[in-house]
Amino acid sequence: MKLIDERGRLFGLINLFDLLALTALVILLVAAGMRIVAKSNEKQAKAQTKTWIATIKCSSVPDNFMESIMMDNRLYYETDGFVNARVIEIKEEEAQVMSVTPVDGTAVVYDPNLKDVYVQIEIQDDPRDEGVKVGRYAVCVGGSFTLKTPYAYSTNGLVLDLKEKK
In this structure, is residue 74 part of a structural domain? Predict the structure, then answer.
């Protein structure tokens, strides 16, 4: 038995060009099936995210910090790019600076150039991860948090509250 007979058939069964066309069709069908499965897995992963609301206090920041945050409310880190959190609410108060007076003990003094800013961020977290994370950084009550957007940066953030959004 010849590999290709006088009629151009492989092992006398199928034409060589027909075999190539059939192989290309099978490869295209397998690739389309893999793409459909990958898209459904992405949809399932997105559907399983939990939404958390964290309240962060940024103490003694410049008075234009609030406006800088609101220019772009997405959180951004150089190592991760834009992450799974965004600012949803912000309020500011006069920054409290403690000073000691010799007669009365301690007194609260307000600095007119600095503000205490309370920021609420919405976090889209993957429940398969351990704990709540913004990018690759863990968020937990009492912990420090670096708040960074493309236009504002505060390293002294303190997480005051963390709740799951209903």
Answer: yes
Selection from 154, 123, 144 nearest residue 61 by Cα: 154
The answer to whether 59 touches 158, Cβ cutoff 8 Å, is yes
- Residue-range definition of the domain harbouring residue 20: 9-46
Q: What are phi and psi of 36, to 5 degrees?
A: -65, -45
Same domain, 55 and 33: no
Instruction: Give the CATH number, domain containing residue 141.
Output: 3.30.70
Confidence of residue 27 (pLDDT cuts 50, 70, 90): very high
Q: pLDDT for 98-122, tens place per residue?
A: 666 666 666 777 778 899 999 999 9
Four-residue CA torsion sign, 62, 63, 66, 68: negative
Residue 17, phi then psi, degrees to nearest 5: -70, -35
Q: Is residue 106 situated within a structural domain? A: yes
Mean pLDDT, the chain, rounded, equals 87
Q: Which residue type does 44 have?
A: Q
Contact 123, 51 (CB under 8 A): yes
- Residue pair 69/90 in contact (Cβ under 8 Å)? The answer is yes
Residue with tokens 């950084």: 137
Q: Does the structure show a pLDDT above 90 at 87? A: yes
Same domain, 21 and 89: no
